[in-house]
Amino acid sequence: MNNTSPAAIEVRNVVKRFGAVTALNEVSLSIPAGEMFFLLGPSGCGKTTLLRILAGLETPDSGTVLFNGQDVAALPAYERGAPMVFQNYALWPHLNVRDNIAFGLVERRVPKAEILSRAEDVLKRVGLAGLGERMPGQLSGGQQQRVVLARALVLNPAVILLDEPLSNLDAKLRVEMRAEIEKLRRDTNITFVYVTHDQADALALADRMAVIHLGQVNAVGTPLELYARPPNAFCADFLGEANFIEGHVDGDTVQTPLGHWTWREGRLTGDGSPHQEAAPSSGRARRPAEPGDMAGAYVCLVRPENIQCVEGADAVANGFEAEITGVRVNGATVTVALAAAGLTLKATVLTQRCLGFQKGDRRWWTVAPENVVLLAP
Amino acid sequence: MKIRFGTPLAVIAIVAALGIFLVWPMAHVFTRSFWDDRGFTWIYVAGLFTNAVQIQAGLTSFWIATCVTLSCVGVALPLAWLFARRSFRGKAVWSGLLLLPMILPPFVSAVGMKIIFSRAGALSTLLMNLGVVDGPVDWLGHFPLFGIVLLETLHLFPILFLNLVASLANIDPSLEESALNLGASPMRVFRRVTLPLAMPGLFAGMTLVFIWSFTELGTPLVFGLRRVLPVAIYDSVAEIGTNSSGYAMVTFVLVISALGFWISKRLLSRQRSVATLGRLSQARREIPLSFRGTALVYLLVGGILFAAVLPQISVVLLSVSHRWFLTVLPEGFTMDFYGQALNSELTRTALLNSLSFSLCATVLDLLLGFGIAWLCVRKKIWGSDWLDALAMLPLAVPGLVIAFGYLGCFSGSFPNTLLDPRMNPMILLSVSYAIRRLPYMVRAAHAGLEQVSSTYEEAAANLGATPFRVVWRITLPLISANLLAGAILCFSFSMLEVSDSLILAQSENFYPITKAIYVLLESLENGLNVASALGVWAMALLGSGLLLAAALMGKRFGQMFRAG
Question: For residue B430, what are the contacts with CB-CB under 8 A and spacing of at least 6?
Fold first, then answer.
């Protein structure tokens, strides 16, 4: 974020209210050109409103939106040049596939011959060559999705906005379309802003993402950063499964109901990940991640895959004994429900390592301390 | 930010049009019934309640409207219950056919009715041949109101039927099932649960029927009944400049109609909050009828339809026969009258006039109707509820009121211009037709816009289409079926509009069809037959238009005639 060229999209202190409801509260974001940026959050968090503000379909109550450093607040939707892929496709039912795709080119007064050739090209690109004469109703859901994408791509835009584009597709098609979008991402230098409530989509596709919660930016970062070092409990919980354990930090140990955990390498992570670039909404100062610097009550985030079973039945470092109360097979991994010290925990273990597990078994488990994230209580 | 003028301009144009051609005439009628050249006076309004002739006219109209309303309930309630709660073969076709009586103009039916019930008519002759009566009976002479009530009942019951079916269908099935479950017999469920819940719809439909029959001008006119309010108003047109009692009568009609309409609106909005808490909790399962049940229903519905169509049939018969006097069926088949209907100067001009007035009215309605629906549904402008209510007002304002108001305001304010109906009624007739049918067009466009997701328009704007281009390339094509259906309705109804046509067209060059029919009825030689032939032409036009509209609108066609 230190480059001097302006970000492709910059949002500054945007506020949007609908009556008494504040949909967006002082949202600021910066998205560099060519990035696949995700807006992720539960339904009703304001992410779609933000996308519609980028498209010019809603006007913010205050704040500014800049495209390449230019304030676009005054530009109506039809002059934004940021085509959008609508959740319900919005393919015009009275126009055939080619006319749907050509729509934006016609509005831009592109010569007829060029429109035809560009429409053909883009149809080929999305794998729908020869279907230009079909009506949208005659296409499958996946094909419709491709047409919507083609309708945006044909304009050679700098930005494409996607609003939950995969939510109407079945599981198999989703995987296919994800691959398709990834390919697009590689082949073009388009900036994508992608809204979804599905963390799997976001983790799989995003260069960076913003977690939106209650109309505010909760966290911004790469999928890896946010998954492994989430800055707060909401973000941790939203991106995958999480165990939250209350702990008291003192020097290089943390005391939890499961026992003392000690840091071997003298490193622990804490509140405010180093990558966090702008999260004014969180309001918390970044803290150096030095163990000596931290003391007091914290919530320890332990991802289920960081609780591992120990062979044998003896006490180990950072270990605890727990009873297995449930086993859920995911495929390659198994999620085991554990009860220990009055807590309910989840552990994810490779399937081949827990073939003998039974409900009611008591076993020893260990937590890798370098993967424990300390969060403000 | 660029300032956009489109919306404000549209609002100003629409509000101005409605203001000048709807609100002003009504306000004019209202003020003129209290103010004359000498200032404020009660005498005209007081006359309504003191002048014996006016009292009698008012009471007769009231009596007719009450009888029509009650007999419509008698016909429509069982039918509506059957159609809302039972399933049987051919239900869709029958429910479509049940709309037929509504679209056949009672004005024309009245001619047929007169033939059937007159002294030397079909019924008398039939009864004489059967030996039931000794000599010809003048049915209409003995029971002058009977014919009117019968005719208007058969014409108006579909309105009540549509309102009731909608009401009954809106009742959550679980409400009735829980009553059954708690021990009420089906009859008791109907009385204690179904009927109370459907009551708002019933009342709303009843008020519509009441207003229509209270203000019906054509039928009593054809029957020669002059002592009813609408005809009294029609007769007062001649002295509109000198005697304000006509204004007072119109105001009276207007107040009654507006009151009824307001009550029905209130009732309907209450029903929405009571009968269904949001969506129906489950889909209703209609009980299939047995073979015998189905046969009985066919007999019932078929009988009602036959009765409703009988006058029209006699009109058709009349139009193809030389002689229908003291015989059950007419004698002497001929197609001459159809030729005459198209060849005489009077009828040819009338057909052309009606065509061009209706066409103008339709175009006006398309512009106004789409504009209003657009502003209300998509733009959600400030005060859109008021605009919508204003556009729906003509449902409550009888044509009589509008025509009388036009004559009063425009001939006084713009004498000897194109807006003076005495000089040239073309503009005012077209506009009055348009205003009268505007609610249907607004509803059609409204339904279309609500059906078409606004994301289609957003997507177009998002891809670079200006607001005007969005409407042109996306919105209009997507709701074209609705607009076409609305246009056909406007056109068809305008072709056979009665009260505006009779009152506003005052010289022969500007007669529309209905006025020509009326004039022909009064003339001696073959007038009745030629009028019938002209009526058949008009009915054929209207019928095919409405069938086309129904096909285009599909299931939503019935919505056009509901109260709310």
Answer: B357, B360, B361, B364
- Parent domain of B453: 337-564
CA separation for the pair A150, A98 (Å, rounded): 10
State the ipTM, two decimals: 0.76
pLDDT tens digits for range B322-354: 777 667 777 777 777 777 777 788 888 888 899
Total structural domains within chain B: 2
Is residue A110 located within the same domain as residue A200? Answer: yes
Query: Shortest CB distance from B462 goes to which of A57, A88, A108?
Result: A57
Nearest residue on chain A to B479, judged by CA atoms?
A94
Q: What's at B215, amino acid-wise?
A: T
Chain B residues lying within 8 Å of A86, measured CB to CB? 455, 458-459
pLDDT tens-digit map of B465-488: 998 899 999 999 988 888 887 888
Domain boundary among B285, B305, B334: B334
Token couple for B245: 């009692």
What is the model's pLDDT at position A185? Answer: 85
- Of B71, B68, B235, the C-alpha closest to B227 is B235
- Per-residue model confidence as pLDDT tens digits over B16-30: 999 999 999 888 888
| Residue of A103, A161, A193 for testing the chain B interface, max B β-carbons within 10 Å | A103
Tell me: do B156 and B118 sit in the same domain. Answer: yes
Q: Do B461 and A76 touch (CB under 8 A)?
A: yes
* Contact (CB<8Å) B463/A107: yes
Selection from B392, B409, B422, B360 nearest residue B21 by Cα: B409
Of A76, A93, A104, the CB nearest to B463: A104
Nearest to B71 by CA among B145, B125, B20: B145
Tell me how many degrees the CA angle A131-A137-A141 measures, rounded to the nearest 5. 80
Instruction: State which amino acid sits at residue A69.
Output: G
Q: How many C-beta atoms surround the C-beta of residue B503 within 10 A?
A: 25
Q: Which residues contact B125 (CB under 8 A, 6 or more apart)?
A: B136, B326, B327, B328
Rounded CA-CA distance B448/B445 in Å is 5
Instruction: Tell me the percentage of chain A whose pLDDT exceeds 70.
Output: 89
Please write the tens of the pLDDT for every residue from A151-207. 999 999 999 999 998 888 888 888 888 888 888 888 888 999 999 999 988 998 999
Helices (H), chain A: 47-55, 97-107, 112-125, 141-153, 171-187, 199-205, 223-228, 233-238
Evaluate if residue A2 carries a pLDDT over 70: no
Q: Which residues pair with A324 in a beta bridge?
A: A338
Cα–Cα nearest to A307, from A348, A340, A335 = A348
Give B181-197 pLDDT, tens digit per residue: 777 777 888 888 888 88
Q: Identify whether the C-beta of residue B461 lies closer than 8 Å to the C-beta of residue A77.
A: yes
Q: Which of B506, B487, B484 is nearest to B429 (CA)?
A: B506
Q: Mind telling me how many Å the CA of B463 is from chain A's nearest CA?
A: 5
B38-76 burial by CB neighbour count: b if 16+ within 10 A, else e?
eeeeeebbebbeebeebeebbebbeebbebbbebbbebb
Name the more confident of B142 and B225.
B225
Output B75 or B236, whichever has higher pLDDT. B75
Q: Which among A192, A225, A258 is the end of a domain?
A: A225
| Backbone φ/ψ region at B554: left (φ over 0), alpha (ψ -120 to 50), beta | left
pTM comes to: 0.76
Window 417-476 of B: residues touching A by CB (8 A cutoff) are: 453, 455-456, 458-467, 469-470, 473-474
* pLDDT reading at B428 higher than 60: yes
Contact criterion met (CB < 8 Å) for A107 and B474: no
- Domain annotation covers residue B29: no
Output the pLDDT for position B278: 45
Task: Report the distance separating Cα B57 and Cα B462, nearest Å.
Answer: 62
Of the three residues B309, B334, B359, the one that is the final residue of a domain is: B334
